[in-house]
Design brief:
This protein is an alpha/beta fold. It has 36 helices and 22 strands. The strands form 5 sheets. The protein has a 6-stranded mixed β-sheet, sandwiched between helices. Strands 13-12-14-15-11-16 form a 6-stranded parallel β-sheet, sandwiched between helices. β21, α23 and β22 form a beta-alpha-beta unit. The longest helix is centred in the C-terminal third of the chain and has 24 residues. It starts with 5 loop residues before the first helix and ends with a helix.
Length: 940
C-alpha cells in the first residue's frame, strides 16, 4: 500500500475544518487575498461602520488600512494586529478598526483556503492557510505520510527567505504535519526545530494525528484564544513566543481558580520547562480580571540577578522593583502599578516594619493575587507567614519543579503551604516532549585510598586531574562549559588551589557567599547555603576574584560582589559573543538552583545531594540547545546512585526512570555497532558512495550515515568512549572517510564567493514528488567542532616551516583539516590564498618574523579577509550592475545585527532598469551571493 499523499492529507484537513465551522474561500492569487481581506474586515467591523451609516470602506479608505498594515517589522505587525486603528474616512468621520477581537476571541471570522500562490523572490504555493478576519494568521505545511516532519519545518524556513511578505507577515502560528505527527510553533524565523511543539490534553497526552489536532487545537474558539491570549510578544528579543500546552493549561487552571474561588494552589512543572514564561503570562492575564487590584510576583533575592531582571522586563516592562530601597516598593504598591515584581525579603520588610506598612493600609484590604516563583525554598519560612498575615484579601499561587513531599520535607510540604496541585508536567513528560534533556549520570571509579575522608589531599588531587583530563571530552572541546559542586567553602578553596597548581589550560573560576544569608535551605537536601565561617576570611574570595580579574581584564572585589556574580553569570551563559566565557565554575550552592544556561552541559559533583536538591542541581545541565547537546552529563565523585534513583522516582510520580537516566555505555555501544554493521553491508567501502548516481540513492546513504553520526555524538561524551576502540564495526579512519563523502553531498565542493552552488528550486507542482536532498536535515552541527576555529588554524599556520621538505604536505594537511569540518569547509580557499600571500611569497620574512616574535598572524589574517571580502563585493557589484555601497551597507547591518535587512538590497535592485519578474530573479541571485560572502568571510 502506498503512503497517503499530501493531497489526501490536505483534502482531509480542509474537510475537518469545514465540519467545525470554518468557511472555505478560494484565493489563488495575492490580489484575491486583499479583496477577501476587505470584505472580511468590513464584516468584522460592521457595528463600527454602522455608527456612521456605512457598510463598506471606500477604495481610498482601504488603501489607508493597507498602508498602515504594511509598515514595520514582523514584531511590530504582531502589535498592530492586536491594536485598534483610527481610520479617518473620506467624509471626515473616525472609525476605530479592529483586526482581532482579543476579548471575545470566538467572535472573529474564520476561513480556510489552500494553494494560495504568492510571487515573492520565488513563486510559491502554500498548502493550507487559516484566515481570521481576512488576515492569514495560521499557515499549515504538510508532507505526505512517511516523510520526516522536519522537512515541512525546513520548507517554512525557505518560505521565510523567498516569499513571506505583505499580509503573510501577519502569520502568528505555523503548523506542520505528515498526518501522524503534528506540531505548531510561533512565527519566529530560524527559532529551530526544537522549538516546535506537540499539542496535548491537560494530562499531557499528545494529539499527534492531524485530524485530532485540528479538532482540538484548530477549533475556532481554541485557536482564537491561543492567538489572543497565549502568544507572547517578547520585548527583549522582539519575537513571538507561543505557549506550550502544559503552560497553557497551568495558566488556565490558575485563572479559573481566581475567577471562581478563593482557594490557593501550586503548579508542578519540571525544572527547565519555561516556568518564567508561564508564571508571567498567568500574572499578566490575572491582572486583566475584573476585581483584581494587584498582582505581585515574588522571587528570592538571589534569583533576581541581572539576567533574570532583563527577562522579567521583557515580559512586563518597568515591573521589576530592582532597587534596595523599600520605599520604592511602597510607591509601587500604593500607586497605579498593577503588576509588581519584587523579592520576598523586601516584601517582608515592607509588611513587618511600621514605618513602611503604615503606607500600605489601603492595599492591605485590596484583592491581591500573589505568585511565588519558587515555592519550595524561602517560601516556607517566617517571611511567607508574615506576608500572608498582612494581606486581608490575598490569593496566592506557587510554581515549583521539585515540590516538597513527606519524603523530602524538613517540616512542611508544598501542599500544606500552598494547597492543591493545579497542574503537573513532570520531568518524564518534558523529556518525552523534547522540552528538556535526560541525564547521563556516571560514577567516578578512582582509587579511593582515602576511604570516607572526602577532604583527603590525594583523593582531591586525583579528582582535579581527572576533571582536567576529561574536560574537553565532556564539553565537546569547550563548546559547552561545566560546574563543579563541592560540599563546603573549605572544600571549594582546597580544590581551587589544587587546580591552580595543575596550571590548567581552561579558565576556572569560583563563587560562594562569604557572609551568612537568610535561607530556608537545609543540609538535608545538600542545598546548604555554603557561606564562609569566621575562619575563612573574605580575602580568600578576593584572591579568587583577583585571578578572575587577571583572566578577563575586570576589576571586581568583595566590595562589589554583586557585580562579580553578574559577570560570572553572563560568562557561564556564553550569550555574548564579545565576552570571553568561563569554562569551569566551582560552587558550593550558588548556581545549583535557578541558574539557566543552555551552554552548560556538565556537572561534577563532590557533595551529598538528595531529593529536590539533587534534581535541581542536575537540572542545570539539561536545557535544550541543539542536536549536539543530547543530554546533561553528571559525574559523581561519591556514590549517589541510591539517592539519584530515589529522587528521580519521587519527582516522576513513581514512574520508571528509563527515559530520564541515559542507558549505560555498553548498551549505547551495542546500538552504534549495529548501525555500523548494517551500514557497511550496504556500503562496504568508501568508494561505494562514489557509485551513487541518483538523488534517491544519495538520500538513502545520507539517512543511514546520519544515524551513525547521531549515535556517535551521543556515545563520545561517555567517559569510557575511545575513538580508536578496535571493537567498533567501523574504524575511526573509516568513519572520517565516510564523513567526508557525507559532507560532499551535504555541502558540495568549496564555493566561490560570487558563484555559489545553485539551490534546488521549490517544487512548483502542488503535489509533486518533493523528496530531494534539499529537504534533508544533515545535522551538520554534529560535525562542527570549536577546536577547528580561526585560533586553531592560525596556530597550525604559525607552526609551518617553509624551509622543510614536507612544507607543501603540511599546508595540505591544514586545508584538509578545514575541508573535513562542516563549519570551516568554505573558508579553505581563503586560507589557501592567505598562506600563499604571507608565506609562499615571502618565506624569508615569515621565518624572520617567527624568529624575532614579531609575527602577528591574527592581524594579518583580519586585514587579508577584509581585503578579499572587499574584492568579492566589488566583483558582485560589477557583475550585477548594483551600487557597491548598498551591498556594503547590507553586510555592515548583518555584521552588527546578525540579521538580513532585505530592504537595502531590494532598493538597490529597483534602481536597475528591468521588469518586475527580472528584478525578482536578480534579487534572489544577489541575496544568495551575499549570503555566500557572509558564509566565507565571517569568522565568528
Amino acid at each position: 500500500m502506498t503512503a497517503q499523499s499530501e493531497q489526501i492529507l490536505e483534502n482531509g484537513l480542509i474537510k475537518t475544518l469545514l465540519e467545525i465551522g470554518y468557511e472555505q474561500v478560494v484565493l489563488k492569487e495575492e490580489e484575491n487575498l486583499y479583496a477577501n481581506f476587505k470584505s472580511q474586515l468590513e464584516k468584522h467591523n460592521k457595528k463600527q461602520l454602522a455608527l456612521i451609516g456605512r457598510t463598506k470602506f471606500s477604495d481610498k479608505e482601504f488603501e489607508k488600512i493597507r498602508i498602515h498594515l504594511e509598515g514595520g517589522t514582523r514584531f511590530e505587525k504582531a502589535k498592530k494586529l492586536r491594536d485598534l486603528y483610527p481610520l479617518e474616512t473620506e467624509d471626515g468621520e473616525r472609525v476605530w478598526i479592529e483586526f482581532l477581537n482579543k476579548i471575545k476571541w470566538c467572535q472573529n471570522e474564520f476561513q480556510v483556503s489552500n494553494q494560495i500562490t504568492v510571487e515573492g523572490r520565488k513563486k510559491c504555493r502554500y498548502d493550507v492557510t487559516i484566515l481570521i478576519n481576512g488576515l492569514p494568521l495560521v499557515q499549515i505545511e504538510l508532507k505526505k505520510r512517511g516523510l520526516e516532519l522536519k522537512e515541512a519545518y525546513n520548507q517554512v524556513q525557505r518560505y521565510h527567505k523567498t516569499s513571506f511578505e505583505g499580509l503573510f507577515d501577519y502569520i502568528q502560528l505555523f503548523v506542520i504535519s505528515n498526518g501522524v505527527n503534528t506540531r505548531y510553533f510561533a512565527n519566529n524565523p530560524n527559532g529551530g526545530y526544537k522549538f516546535t511543539f506537540n499539542w496535548t490534553d491537560a494530562e499531557n497526552t499528545p494529539f499527534n494525528d492531524l485530524e485530532k489536532f485540528a479538532s482540538h487545537f484548530l477549533e475556532k474558539c481554541s485557536l482564537g484564544k491561543m492567538i489572543s491570549k497565549y502568544i507572547v510578544l517578547h520585548e527583549g528579543d522582539k519575537s513571538l513566543m507561543a505557549l506550550r500546552p502544559y503552560q497553557y493549561y497551568a495558566v488556565e487552571r490558575i485563572l479559573d481558580r481566581i475567577e471562581n474561588s478563593t482557594k490557593n494552589g501550586y503548579i508542578w512543572h519540571t525544572t527547565g520547562a519555561g516556568k518564567t514564561l508561564t508564571s508571567f503570562k498567568a500574572a499578566q492575564l490575572a491582572s486583566e480580571i475584573d476585581g483584581i487590584d494587584k498582582v505581585i510576583f515574588v522571587v528570592d533575592r538571589r534569583d533576581l540577578d541581572t539576567q533574570t531582571q532583563s527577562e522579567y522586563e521583557s515580559f512586563e516592562p518597568k515591573a521589576v522593583d530592582s532597587t534596595d530601597n523599600t520605599y520604592e516598593l511602597i510607591k509601587r504598591l500604593s500607586g497605579n502599578s498593577k503588576i509588581i515584581i519584587t523579592t520576598i525579603q523586601k516584601l517582608n520588610n515592607a509588611v513587618t516594619r511600621d514605618r513602611y506598612n503604615k503606607h500600605l493600609q489601603k492595599v492591605r484590604d485590596q484583592k491581591v493575587v500573589m505568585i511565588f516563583d519558587e515555592c519550595h525554598r524561602s517560601q516556607f519560612g517566617d517571611s511567607h507567614k508574615n506576608i500572608r498575615r498582612f494581606f486581608n484579601n490575598l490569593q496566592f499561587f506557587g510554581f515549583t519543579g521539585t515540590p516538597i513531599f513527606s519524603e523530602n520535607a524538613n517540616e512542611h510540604t508544598t501542599a500544606e503551604v500552598f494547597g492543591e496541585c493545579l497542574h503537573r508536567y513532570l520531568i518524564k513528560d518534558a523529556i518525552a516532549d523534547e522540552n528538556v534533556l535526560g541525564f547521563l549520570v556516571e560514577y567516578y571509579k578512582g582509587r579511593n585510598e582515602a576511604g570516607e575522608d572526602y577532604m583527603n589531599q590525594v583523593r582531591m588531587q586525583e579528582i582535579a586531574k581527572f576533571i582536567l583530563a576529561n574536560f574537553h571530552k565532556s564539553t565537546f572541546d569547550g563548546e559547552y562549559n561545566a560546574v563543579f559542586a563541592t560540599q563546603s567553602v573549605a572544600a571549594l578553596l582546597k580544590y581551587y588551589k589544587l587546580f591552580k597548581e595543575l596550571q590548567p589550560k581552561i579558565k576556572i573560576g569560583a563563587v560562594f557567599t562569604y557572609e551568612a544569608n537568610v535561607s530556608q535551605d537545609d543540609e538535608f537536601t545538600g542545598i546548604n547555603q555554603g557561606f564562609a565561617t569566621e575562619s575563612v576570611a573574605a580575602d580568600e574570595l578576593q584572591l579568587i576574584i583577583d585571578d578572575y580579574n587577571g583572566m578577563f581584564a575586570t576589576s571586581f572585589s568583595t566590595e562589589n560582589f554583586g557585580a562579580y556574580y553578574d559577570d560570572v553569570n553572563l560568562r557561564m551563559k556564553k550569550k555574548k559573543p564579545d565576552m570571553e566565557p568561563l569554562d569551569l565554575l566551582l560552587v558550593v550552592n550558588m548556581f545549583l538552583t535557578g541558574f539557566d544556561a543552555k551552554k552548560l552541559n556538565t556537572l561534577y559533583v563532590d557533595k551529598n545531594l538528595e531529593y529536590h536538591g539533587l534534581v535541581q542541581a542536575f537540572s542545570r545541565t539539561n536545557r535544550i540547545l541543539n542536536e549536539k547537546k543530547r543530554f546533561g552529563k553528571v559525574i559523581c565523585f561519591r556514590n549517589l546512585k541510591d539517592n539519584v534513583d530515589a529522587a528521580i522516582r519521587l519527582f516522576s510520580n513513581n514512574q520508571p526512570n528509563e527515559f530520564i537516566i541515559r542507558e549505560p555505555f555498553e548498551k549505547v555501544k551495542q546500538e552504534l555497532n549495529e548501525l555500523m554493521t548494517d551500514f557497511k553491508k550496504k556500503y562496504p567501502e568508501v568508494q561505494s558512495v562514489d557509485a551513487l548516481q541518483s538523488e534517491y540513492d544519495k538520500k538513502d546513504f545520507v539517512l543511514a550515515f546520519r544515524e551513525i553520526i547521531k549515535k556517535r555524538a551521543e556515545i563520545q561524551v561517555y567517559e569510557d568512549f575511545e575513538a580508536d576502540d578496535k571493537s567498533f564495526a567501523m574504524s575511526e579512519q573509516e568513519f572520517m572517510d565516510f564523513r567526508s563523502k557525507y559532507l560532499d553531498i551535504a555541502i558540495g565542493p568549496i564555493k566561490s564567493p560570487v558563484d555559489p552552488l545553485s539551490v534546488v528550486a521549490e517544487p512548483q507542482e502542488p503535489y509533486g514528488e518533493e523528496v530531494t536532498l534539499d529537504d534533508i536535515d544533515f545535522c551538520l552541527e554534529l560535525l562542527r567542532s570549536d577546536v577547528i576555529n580561526v585560533a586553531y588554524i592560525l596556530e597550525l599556520i604559525a607552526n609551518l616551516n617553509p624551509s622543510s621538505h614536507d612544507y607543501e604536505q603540511q599546508k595540505r594537511q591544514i586545508l584538509d583539516t578545514m575541508i573535513k569540518d562542516a563549519g570551516m569547509r568554505n573558508k579553505a580557499k581563503l586560507i589557501d590564498g592567505f598562506m600563499r600571500q604571507n608565506i609562499d611569497n615571502d618565506k624569508d620574512g615569515f621565518n624572520k618574523a617567527k624568529a624575532d616574535g614579531t609575527m602577528d598572524l591574527e592581524t594579518r589574517l583580519a586585514a587579508y579577509v577584509t581585503q578579499e571580502r572587499g574584492k568579492a563585493v566589488q566583483d558582485l557589484a560589477q557583475e550585477e550592475a548594483i551600487e557597491v555601497g548598498a551591498l556594503n551597507n547590507f553586510l555592515a547591518e548583518y555584521d552588527y545585527l546578525k540579521r538580513e535587512k532585505m530592504e537595502i538590497v531590494q532598493e538597490a535592485v529597483r534602481q536597475r532598469k528591468a521588469g518586475l519578474i527580472e528584478r525578482r530573479t536578480i534579487l534572489d541571485r544577489v541575496v544568495k551571493k551575499l549570503r555566500n560572502i557572509i558564509d566565507i568571510y565571517n569568522w565568528d
